Every structure is written in C-alpha cells, then in structure tokens.
Amino acid sequence: MASGKIMRYAAMLRSGEITSVKLTEAYLEKISVLNPEINAYVSVNAEKALASAKEADAMISRGEGYVLTGIPFGIKDNIATKGEETTCCSRILKGYRPTYNATVYERLVERGAVVLGKNNMDEFAMGSSTETSCYGAAYNPHDKGHVPGGSSGGGAAAVAAGLAAYTLGSDTGGSIRQPAAFCGVVGLKPTYGAVSRYGLIAYGSSLDQIGPIASSVEDAAIVFDAIKGADKRDQTSSGGTEPTVDKLDGNVKGLRIGIAEEYFDGISADTLAGVRKAIDFYAGSGAEIVKVSLPMLKDALPVYYIIACAEASSNLGRYDGIRYGYRAARYDDVNDMIMRTRSEGFGREVKRRIMLGTYVLSSGYFDAYYKKALRLRESIVTAFTKIFAECDVLIAPVAPTTAFPVNYTADNMIETYMSDICTVPVNIAGLPAISVPCGKDGKNLPVGMQIIGKKFDELTVLRAAYAYERAGLTDVSLDTGVTL
Ligand code: GLN
C-alpha cells in the first residue's frame, strides 16, 4: 500500500533512529548515482543541504521541529532561491542568482526542510516533456526511452526515482499533474491564489500556480498545508490556514463525483481502462456518480494557448541582456544587443510562443484572438460553476496517453499541444486538481487520474484522492528507498 514518506521520516527523526544529516547524505548519494541517467536535478548544493540538515537535527533535539523538519526536497528551477542559480533552464538566465527567496521556499526552510537542489524543467515551463531544457532532457525513471512529462519533469522524475522525499513544481497548464501522471507519483495543482506566487518566475501570470509533487496523497497534503495561505507579497494570494492532512480519512460515502464524457474523447484505451477502474472503485465505496456535461472543453486548448502565450510575451520582455543573466558577446548598439541576446538566449519553443503572444496582442488581431479568448474564458468559468452545483468533484484522465517516447515532441508539436486538453481547463478556471496514479499501461508506464474540485476546496480533492490511496490502489512502485 502506498504510504506517506514524510510522516515515517518525521517519526524516525524524532525517535533518533536516523538524523537529518544521515538522511540527507543518503539522498545525496542516490542523486550522485542516478542523476547522471535521469537528469532530474540541474544543480545540487550538497554543502548547503548538509548545513541545513545539521540545523534541522539541532531543532529536533530542542523539540522545536515541525513535520517537514530535516526532510530533503527538490525545487523547480523557476522558483527563486536566494544566492542560488535560478535559470528556468534557459540559457538567457544562466548565472542569474536571485537576491530574494520565493515565499514557498521560505515557508519550507523556516520549518527546517532541507533543499537538495533545483529540478530540471522545460525552458520557462513551456512544454510537456522536459526536453527543451538548456541542461539537456530529463528521462522517465520507469523507462528511460520515455520522457518524464513536463514542464516539472525533473521534479516528478526525482520523486519517482527516490531522489527527493518531495519536490515543488509549477502548473500553468498541467505542468505538475501531467509529469506526476507520467512518472506514477502524486501532483497537486492548488486553486489559483491558494499558494503565493512570489518568487515564481512568471510564464502566464493568470494561470501559474506552485504545488507539491510527492509519493503519496498524504505527503502532498502535508506540503500543501506548509506552503499555502495569503502572502502580502502576492496580491492574488488568499485562503485559510486550516490543515487538510488531519482530515484525510478515506471516506467517500455520499461524495458526488461528476463524470463529463467530453474528457474521455480521444483517450487511449489503457488510460481509459485505468480511470474507469478508479471510477468503479468510488462507485463501490458509496460515492454517487453523476453524469455532467462540459461541451466547452474543446475551446479550452485555443483559449489556453492564446492567453498563456500573450502573458508570456509580456512577462519575458524583461530578458534584454541588461538586467539578468546572459548577454550576447558581440553587438553594434543597444538595440542590436537586445536582439542578439534574445535570439541567442531563448530556445526555439520560447521564441515561438513569444511571437504567437505578440501576434495575438497586436493591434488588428487583439479583438479577434486575445479578447475572444478572454470572453471564452469567462464562459468556461461559468460552465464549471454550473457543474459544481451538481457534484463535489470531477474525475477525468490527466493526459490522453501515457509518457511519450523520447524525441516524439520535437516532430509532433501540435499533437503535444493537444495532449494538454485534460489539464488546461483547470488553470483557465483557477480550480484545484490532483493527479493520482491509477495503474499501468501495456508498456508498463504509469497512468494518472485527475480529481478536480471547487475553488479553495483542496480538502475534498485530497480526501477523494486519499480514499483511493488508502485502498492500496495507487502504488506503481519504483523509488526503492534510500540506504540509511
Ligand atoms: N504543457 C503546457 C504548456 O506547454 C503546460 C505548461 C505548464 O503548465 N507550465 O504550456
């Protein structure tokens, strides 16, 4: 049965069976053996990790520890960590060391959590395979001939391979949930605003959210509890601080689970089978299955790609060679310097999206694309509000297929964009959703199901997911542990 790692480590740290230094050394050792093959980390700071582990041990011995104290984690390379390279895995930010910490990072470090390093990702979080990173691709620990998903592929691969107890990722259109599904782990995309975005390098600011990737629902709930809540440095953040983890009991009696058939169109047979089996479990456990309809689902993809690219074209305007990171070596004047820096510093996919975004925002096209997308976004929000009058959560696949083969994405760009169909609606509407493993396909690759909830109702999402986990149905193995 899949069980939480965090509680187990926390108990071992308190009983004196292990120390945080030992645990951290064990993770660092495993990273040094496996990371060259998986490329889940783009930087590891062993010295810093061991120093924090020492402090954590002292905290625990003084009886001051919190449940995450002394437990090692990884963090996506687009989340600012003071003095440590934070590059979004882009050449243009190589060498950039933020002068401040992201709020989520600060909240974990204040609790004595131990950061191991930064996780690999698609450049600027634009992608679904973690193959556009300037540090090279990451690989799926279940089968290195396949991708780990993206854009938080490094973080998901790290958890699956046991190279961190948990990681923090970001999700603009599926980047926590899809890699979690591809790697057979749990990923929670919180409600827009439930977790501070301060210090998250922006991609699509109205869609971006930070959330945990973990090896169990319980662990995801613990990390979510630690990072959530209002932050005066992010005016879009809010939400209460009631812990969710205490309320996970495995009971789904009377829970109304909505099934929108539109989510199941064009889904591969193996994925369908996994998700349907999960739905049967809920039906058999006393939940009420409600048929609902989301005809607007087909509009979600164009709406997402128009809004995300528009916001990205504006957000990425700041990388000009003057303020951060990379600057072209040779240029004639300032304009030439900016042009060369951006041409050389950004990868193909990032440039494509900046151009797309600039196009949909340009005069003459603004009304036809951007404004129309905003109007459709409102209709999608309304459609979800109506659905959630009839049910408490929705269950859907996370992605139409399991992990793509390595190198598939580069030649199948449109198909890759289309594979975001099941994840982007949640970001458009700002809803919380979790990705939970629900079996394997014929190639032995993990399948994920998605549980979507009402705004700020992570609790119901987590409770539903936990019921499946407690029944022992989420385990797709790997992570053979660390040697202590
Ligand atoms: N795959 C989506 C994209 O390429 C989602 C990315 C994300 O959530 N950061 O934009």
Task: Describe the structure in your own words.
With 484 residues, this protein is of the alpha/beta class. It has a single domain (1-484), classed as Amidase signature (AS) enzymes (Alpha-Beta Complex). 40% of the residues lie in helices and 13% in strands. Glutamine (GLN) binds at residues 125-128, 151, 171-175, 203, 308, 420.
Task: Tally the helices.
Answer: 16
Oligomeric organization of the protein chains: single chain
The percentage of residues in β strands lies in 5-15%
Count up the domains.
1
Q: Can you say what the CATH homologous superfamily is?
A: Amidase signature (AS) domain
In CATH's first tier, which class applies?
Answer: Alpha Beta
Arithmetic mean pLDDT: 96
Cα-atom radius of gyration:
21 Å
CATH fold category name: Amidase signature (AS) enzymes
Largest sheet: 11 strands, mixed
Instruction: Give the low-pLDDT segments.
Output: none
The end-to-end span amounts to 21 Å
* Ligand kinds: glutamine
Strand arrangement, largest sheet? 1-3-2-4-6-5-10-11-9-7-8
Q: Total strand count, please?
A: 11
